[in-house]
Amino acid sequence: MSILNRYIGSAILQSTGLVTIVLLSLFTFFTFADELNDTGKGNYQVLDALQYSIASLPRTFYQIFPSAALLGAMLGL
Description:
Blueprint: H1 3-35, H2 46-55, H3 57-76
């Protein structure tokens, strides 16, 4: 494996990771903001909304990873 191939591969992985973190942060924030509408109804409080937002991270990651990989590869190249 040449140095150039390793450089391109690491650039793509770094940019894909960065794009994934940014998109996960945005989607988690929007999920949390949407859940805040339901707080105060019954026993559903802000900490419950935060817990739901964090618990939905794996599903969100699974949904956005193909787009994040595409964007990361484009940015890396």
